[in-house]
Amino acid sequence: MASCHRAANRVPQLRALVEQMTADRQRAATAAQERLPVFEAEVKARQAAAGELTVEGEPDPARLTDAQRQEYDDLRMTARFKTFDLDYLMGWVLIAEGRPAAALEHLRRAGKAEPRRPGLHLQVGDALVGLRRWVEAEQAFRRALAIDPRNPHAYLGLAKACLRQKRVDEGLAAALESVALCYQNPMAHYVLALGLLRNRQFTRAAEAMRVAVSINPNFERAHRLLAGYAMRFEFDPEKARGHWRLVREIRARRRRERRVEPTALAGVEDLAPEVDQEARQIPFDGAPERQRAPLVDKSGVPTDPAQCVVVVAGLPRSGTSMMMQMLVAGGLAALTDGRRAADGDNPRGYFELDAATRLRQDRTWLAGARGRAVKLVAQLLPFLPPDEAYRVVFMERDFKEVLKSQRLMLANLGRAPANLTDEQLERAFNQQLRQVRIWLGKQPNVKTLFVSHRETITDPIAVGERVCAFLGGQLDAWAMAAAVDGSLYRQRASGAA
Known about the structure:
Layout: H1 2-7, H2 11-49, H3 66-79, H4 84-96, H5 100-113, H6 118-130, H7 134-147, H8 152-164, H9 168-181, H10 186-198, H11 202-215, H12 220-232, H13 237-257, H14 271-279, E1 309-314, H15 320-330, E2 373-377, E3 390-396, H16 399-412, H17 422-442, E4 446-452, H18 453-458, H19 460-470, H20 477-482
């Protein structure tokens, strides 16, 4: 019965059952403690009358009948009142109730009796996660794996602990192992998706989240993240509204049934919004959410690149040349004059058009840009004329990496850098980019796909597929991915893989 309540996440019923079992066992122990000396005295009296006591004058166990021996063993065992299994279950109840510190006390008592039980260490790990003691939680999950090296739940707990410590690669590896060992666990796919989001592998994260909701259609948190993905990356408000509708239905059903959140969410229920907030650093095709600006209807922007201008934009040294190389490799013509030759800073070429740098003064060159890709500095995007349709691939890169790369390029060209501190430059660029993003979101003739420079290097196939889909699906995504040369990723921020 206890196992059924736990599997169904019926926490109040399990608590009531554990409390009843504890009380029953306590009464049985008290009765056994009172009966045991009486039983021993009766046996001693019978053996004494029959002359069967040992030379020390004590009862001889060998002369007990089978029934007497069974009663004696039962009394001694019951009188000890050990509640390992009940402490273990109560630990689970307390974790589900959001009381991890109290749970830890019960679990540690249980651990003194059964230290080799992997499930115990899993529960201890979950309690420590609830207390935000990530390092100790990781140690508990590793103890479980030392006992049972193929335990999918231990790998899942380890993934949570590693992600909490921002050791993303280790967290992803543990989540993948958990999925491999128990594919039908939706929480494993969900935690895998959180790690992929943190690693900026958004397409794969969405795939993992979809698997989670296919296994458990009532997975509220997964629907919430999928709604955000639909808005920011798929430009599909209708799909986002569908996920939010399911979220409301799930919440209403839970209120009717008075159910609590599954305990498996321990350690990830507040990691999800944290990761989602990180994902928001790559905004969707609209004004930043804090602006509360209404979404603009961009359905009039053609999907076919032949019917619009493809613009590759970003800060200098943010990966725009790399994206131009990918588009050309995928089969899209580039609008470039070839004046700036390849060099050590960009050995594969710059793909620049000198006329594009004068967009403020001269826009006549755009007449021949339809159906081709042109590179543009991000700050010039607001000067694009409104009588043309554009699909913008906007490259984003860690500012510290951008600055390092820019300074090195200027040094190679023998030019002095700007007479500003790094902090001043970062503030200025961030303000400019914020204004550009707001402008992009308000233009009905401009659709934008934001692309991470780092993800392009680490996962070029996923990026190639996403860019290909954004541009109508006619390009060769694999050829685009093959055009990426990871060895050219030389100016990395500290901590970048």
